[in-house]
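Figure S4 source data
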Amino acid sequence: MTRTSADPAPILVAGRWERSPRVLDVLDPAHPGQLAGRTYQATPEQLEAATVAAEAALPIMRALPAYERGRILRETARLVLERRDELARSITLEAGKPIRDATTEVERTALAFRIGAEEAERITGETIPLDLNAASRGRWGITRRFPIGPVAAISPFNLPLGLAVHKLAPAIAAGCPIVLKPPSKAPLALLALAGILVEAGVPEGALSVLPMDRELGDRMVGDDRFRLLTFTGSPAVGWAMKARAGRKKVVLELGGNAAVIVDSTADIDRAVLRCLQGGYKYAGQLCISVQRMYVHASVWDTFMERFVAGAQELVTGDPMDPATDLGPMVDPAAVSRTQRWVDEAVAAGGQLVFGGRGEGAWFPPSLLTDVPKEQAICTEEAFAPIVVAAPFEDFDAVLAEVNDSRFGLQAGLFTNDLAHAWKAFEELQVGGVIVNDVPTYRIDHMPYGGVKDSGLGREGLRWAIEDMTEVRILVLA
């Protein structure tokens, strides 16, 4: 399909680039009211065509040998790196992410595709001796994983490529057709990635990338022709989707209010540096952003003095400037909610150490202390450049404090006490404990997900492939 730079970007419907009557304006968060670009919202007929094509593509995808699935994923990784600057610029324009972080996101997207290629080539089964009683003498079982079927996927705005790749790469590795709903606020880089996947050789019909309104997205969620739903986003939306998902398997990667503990034995300089990055990177719009920070009383004054000094050096400004640390939040509504929660915390007795006053789409890095723990800024997911700090003295008590949350995604612990590290691993009710780093740490081949309201199942290439495949046993008598 020919297109000029002024035209909306077409959407991918079962391997074909199409338009629709429903134009979607994508706004630039750094310049409210200005367009980052335009695309289309899919029609019900286009979703139906994508769903039918995904069903028809299943035998083709299932028959692809491991080397071919690996080749597609490796070629995708290569092309992503080749177009790194173009993709990073798109992310910055539509999501407001500082260009330095957007470039890192593109590079990690390529890494995830490369890991997906490797995992595609080592999906294995096992042999099982079945002769556990006389009637089963001479019998053996052989297991093999088969693709579960068409996948419905929904990804969020904050890592437009970096979170979508954890649905796309394992689906292709496993041999599953996939229909992906990109974030309406940031679909353009993902549509460009869809073009790369088509160029890399994904079979026609096996991939659709369809921006949709909520009503059409709900239709996809409830459609039993999809055998798995994978969603990354807010807890309220995710759990409501699970209730409507019917018989399909569901994987949810939801929110959190991640905590970090700075123990008395911690390397304070490293802890300060990483907590600044973990709390304020991408304006805190990460589900594992540092939100709650517990610092041992013996190092509280030293840590806080260095943390405050470090925060003053953070650069807030134009996300296209490589020197920028914090860009805008995704929209003014997010700033308004953040402002309300900060004001409520201060009214309840919390102390504002720095920041705390947003304007337009911008909110500065902010630090609060002495906040009553029932305040929303402590109990909910802030998804903003807000850190709430508190001192502690007893390690067992601070572990209980971290666990006193309806969320449980990841937690961080800075310590040089091995016993404390093991105790945190045993007792913290989270999907991951990160020792001597912030909960914001993630690399793409590790299992990633949460407990409680933070989600269901695990992402990370190998673990996602397990959810996207079903075990079948062959019994030999």
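Figure S5 source data
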Amino acid sequence: MKKYVKGANPYMPLWEHVPDGEPRVFEHNGEKRVYVYGSHDIEKTQYCGRNYVVWSAPVNDLTDWKYHGVAYETHYDSILYAPDVVKKGDTYYLYAAEKKGSLVVVASSKDPAGPFEDPVETKLGFDPGVLVDDDRRVYAYWGGCAAPCYIAEMEDDMATIKEETLVSNPLGHSTCPWNPVDDGHISLIDAFFEASSPRKVMGKYVYLYSKRYEKPVPELGVYYPNNGFLSYRISDTPFGPFHDGGDISFNGGEILRDSEGRGTMTYQWGNNHGSIMEVNGKWYIFYHRQTGLNEYSRQAMIEPVDVALGSDGKLYIGDVKYLEGEAVSSKPVEMTSQGAQINGIDARLWISAGYACHIYGSSKRAYVRPGYEQTEEISTPVCDITSGTTVGFRYLQFGNNTPETVSLVLEEAAKLKVLLRLDSYRGRVAAELEFDGNTKEATAKLDCGIIGKHAVYFEFLSEDKDQAYIFDRFTFD
């Protein structure tokens, strides 16, 4: 029986919703694994939930994710916002954001998967991020748009800040419509929004955060205020001064560009939160995307990134451009369907429409419908597809033997035609699938051979311009 794809992008099962993921590589019981700690979108009508769960994967296979269960539950009957976890000595410390981030407590465990117990209240604030330095000194970073970011060194108890070290507003917080009042701190356009995540990379202190752009970024399809970015700044000390690095990730999907370089997003952007981690000698950015019609069903995403130190002393992170072997610039890496499957998703498995990184052209607002049924064979469909919509997947792996057919499954029977296009949403048509109105599955022979790695797109065409369709899954044989 044909199996379903697992460990693509999103890399957790399609029924799981863990945003704000902070990745950490820990060795426990003789095994190195990457653990992801995030909030948990289970409330469905608001952000996050009342517990944290932990997932991990072996460092040599980021497609094989294991569920460890609930690691911490609220002690205040409240919603838990984004956490962080660090290790010092033989103890793991979870910084839990109780009361929607207004109260941060630190709980501890001898196991990276928890349970984390005995919470102690701290003076840290919204979106805490913690760095254990090479000399075992510990620094905390926190803050959000409604208040500036802060940095402080921690005492050995991992809960108390050293008040004399507190630095306020080291980055300058962004201007926001809901925070127009001058609070005595510097407010900047295109600046810190939330999601503090400090890391030490090649001897540099890297402050990752969610940037809010107020000015347009036309090459990425951004024409209105947008905080779907993960960005970074760099310093030679944990307290700054921090110098601009750039943007690493943007969750607006594949960016289509016209002849003048102006972009169009193909996925519904939303808030972003995550960090970078070196796993088995390769760097990745962990971030999240949105599903549904709001920001309450977010999913964990991953992309490989380059990390390079330029001859100018600047650290480049993301899609790095090299000139004569030297790193000279960087830009956000693309958002893909493959994630850590860097050779592409196996085209001969069942591939859920929910892995799409391109949903474009619907006269309604086509979207990935969230799924919560905890089954191996879950597929999260793309809904509200209308005639002219393209749904794309970057990238699939076809191997050295070309398939003969493509099959596509709708959620309900419909009358329409679906074109399979290769490499571009306007690329070569490789097959035409006909649905006669009495069936929800169609198979068509390919008009050309396909081997190796390709992006694939499905274009939906119907005489009824107002009818909406639901795309469930597809496969090649």
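The radius of gyration is 23 Å. The chain is about 0% helix and 50% strand.
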